[in-house]
Amino acid sequence: LQASTIDGRRKGACLFCQEYFMDLYLLAELKTISLKVTTVDMLKPPPDFRSNFEATPPPILIDNGLAVLENDKIERHIMKNIPGGHNLFVQDKEVASKIENVYSKFKLMLVKRDDASRSVLQRHLQTINAHLAQRDTRFLTGDTMCCFDCELMPKLQHIRVAGKYFADFEISPELTHLWRYLRNQYQLDAFNQSCPADQDIINHYKQQQ
Questions:
Q1: What average pLDDT does the segment 15-29 reach?
Q2: Which residues, in sequence order, are bridge partners of residue 2?
Q3: Which residues pair with 70 in a beta bridge?
Q4: Model confidence, pTM
Q5: Are 166 and 117 in contact (CB under 8 A)?
Q6: How many other CB atoms sit within 10 Å of the CB of residue 105?
Q7: Distance separating the N- and C-terminal Cα atoms of the chain
Q8: Which of 203, 205, 185 is nearest to 195 (CA)?
Q9: How far is it, in rounded angstroms, from Cα 21 to Cα 39?
Q10: At what angle do helices 147-167 and 102-112 cross, to 10 degrees?
Q11: Which candidate, 43, 25, 23, 42, places its Cα nearest to that of 34?
C-alpha cells in the first residue's frame, strides 16, 4: 500500500489501496488466504522496492511470488486466482451505474466549491440512498459485502472528510438509508483496518491543489 504522505509509515489515502485491502481482508476473514500488508513511502522507497518495481506506485499485489502491478489486473487476479475471490465480484449493472460517477462529482465539487456542484453530488448520493431503500439490505447488493461496497465505502469516507474540510459539504441527514449504510461501514473490521486517518485524506487533496 502507499504509505501516509505525512509520516511515511501508516496507511495512506489511496482509494485503490483501500479498496483492494478490503477485498483481501474479507477473504482473509474467511480463512481462504493469509494476508500481509506493507506500506511503502513513495518519497523514500526502500532499495528492494526500487529494484523490483522501479517507480511503480502501490497498490501492488504479491501472490506466491507473482507481482501484479496494475489496478485492473489486480482486480482480475483477485477474482480469478485468489480462493473465494469470485464470490466478491458479483455482476450487478444497476449498482455499477449508481456508484460509478460519484467520485468524479465529488472531485468537481472540490474544484468549484459552489452550491451547484454541492447539489449535483447530493443528488447523486440521493440515488444511492434510493437504491438502498429499494433493496432494503445492509449492503449494495445484499446482506453480504461485495466488490461494489469495497469500492464505494472508501469514496464515501473521502466525501465525508475532505468534502467537509474543503467545501463545507455534508451528506444530508435526510438520506437515512445511506446513513444506515455508513453506520454498517464503521462497524466493519475490513473498513476500519484499511481506513486512512482523516489528516491523511485531507493532505491527499491538499497536495493536488
A1: 97
A2: 40
A3: none
A4: 0.96
A5: no
A6: 17
A7: 23
A8: 185
A9: 11
A10: 10
A11: 25
pLDDT digits (tens, 9 = 90+) for 182-209: 999 999 999 999 999 999 999 999 999 8
Q: Please report where in the chains the cell 504522505 appears, as a residue.
A: 5
CA 16 to chain centre: 6
The torsion angle over the Cα atoms of residues 131, 133, 136 and 142, rounded to 10 degrees, is 20
In whole angstroms, give the CA distance from residue 163 to residue 169. Answer: 5
- By CB atoms closer than 10 A (0-12, 13-18, 19+), residue 92 is middle
Residue type, 189: D
| Among 141, 31, 132, CA closest to 88 | 141
Let me know the angle formed at the C-alpha of 34 by 5 and 200, rounded to the nearest 5 degrees. 15
What pLDDT is recorded for position 209? 87
Question: Phi and psi (nearest 5°) for 63?
Answer: -125, 110
Return the C-alpha cell found at 112.
468549484
